[in-house]
Sequence to fold (552 residues):
Amino acid sequence: MLKVLRHCFVLGVAGSLMLAQPVTAMAEDGIRRNLVDVSWLAKNLTNPDVVILDASPETYAKQHVPGAIGVNIYDLFAYGFGGISDAKIEQLFQSWGISPAKKIVMYDKGGDQLATRLFFDLDYHGVPEQNLFVLDGGLSKWQQQGLPVTKDIAPLPKNGSFKVTKLNDDLRGGLPEVLTASGDTANNALVEGLEPAWHFGAVAPFDRAGHIPNGIMAPSEDFYNPDKTFKSPEEIKKMLTYLGVRPEQQIYTYCGGGVAATVPFFAAKFVADYPKVKLYPESELGWLSDQRQLPYWTFDAPYLMRETGWLQFWSGQMIRMFLGAPVSIVDVRPAEAFSQGHIPFSLNIPGDVFKSNAANPAKLAQILGPAGVNASDEAVVVSGAGLTKDSALAFVMLEKLGQKKVSLFMDSMDTWTKQGQQVKKEATVVGPKKGPRDLSIPPTSYPENFRKDVAITDAKSTQGIYPKVYIASGKDLPAKNQNGKVVHVPYTDLLNADGTPKSAKDIWAVLAKAGVPRYAELVCFSDDPGEAAVNYFILKLMGFPDIKVLVT
Fold:
């Protein structure tokens, strides 16, 4: 088990931090809040009031900062799972020479996560936070500056006087609150410090592949500069804002087993100064160990895809008669196909209607309302063949119009009938209800709450947090190219033969090979807007925050 845990932690990546705060007099001396630079440490190597801890047990014997005490950080990992008592922790910290009045400087190889995990453990167990410091850039930055290293093992210091008196529980989140947070994304953010291979399921050390539902992928390595120092507070705030993480939210960071997660924890709390940040130490191992078999996702937004088992409930006559149904079923097939058999209570709005009005959302709204589409419902788009150009473009336009929620029905009509569900041939009645049991769908006045993004007619009309990157979405490059960076991702490369999206891990592999950046304003375009819309839908499914479709 220890080997598995250790492997999980290594995969998470990341390390020492550049903690930043408003410049003070101490900043001139190389200290900024809980960060020290290598110059400050070089001047304080022999300071008796400074304890230097090397948190990289694999490399300590080969080279380390002179005077640094080698810490086997892995001894602490079991604590998150109830393996080490507070008394043992106290004894361990004392053996490193830790006393309440001393400054503790810790480091790892740089660009790693071990120093941040050690920082969390010391802080959580009550070592005064104002005395805890991480060496920015770690051993890598130290050596870049030509500073000395040694193989000589530092003698153990005199035992320190630190006592565990009170745990800092404000730093730590448990499973119950993380479970609640996963279902309340308005007030909470779950930030995952793992790489895409883990997040999307290519790497699966546990019994299932993927991530905690609504987890936001923010790999630990994304918080570092090339020289292993932390990015600036402004850059980290920009990154978190792009990912949808807001300062007013309660933030929980997690990973596979609570080590890589300490990098976004430290960056958000001590670099970007977000006020409410907790680490979930048990992380995915704790989540998956729960006997309730908690859900686990590979896609970031699997709820955008609906299947027969879900839709049959909302298409049932009894449900609609007695409970109503906050679901508008929009069938985009041609009228002839619709008349041959459709899901009960479907509204037929052929794909050509969406395509011909892609650049005129106001006219489209005038069509949808009288047809019975309620903007306050979840609109489920049915194509009869999974994710098609028509269903994807309908998805895009409904989002553009401000529909409360939009999803796509991924099953075919054959699958619907094979699972014993009925179909209707007569058109769904749209008209005023004549009584409480009347199953007619009332027409609505579709509000013009149009979103400025999503579907755009001018690529220059929007400006995201990060630079714009165009995704050519057809089999061939469009006749009219765009003025800017263009990557080619044929939408067919992202689909299975049955019209469903490929697995999350396979989609990520295609996107990564094509060069689609993680941080960008992505604009999908093609000679056929439906092709661009397919890529838009899949990028939404994968959790990219800023995506648009160019329609003309």
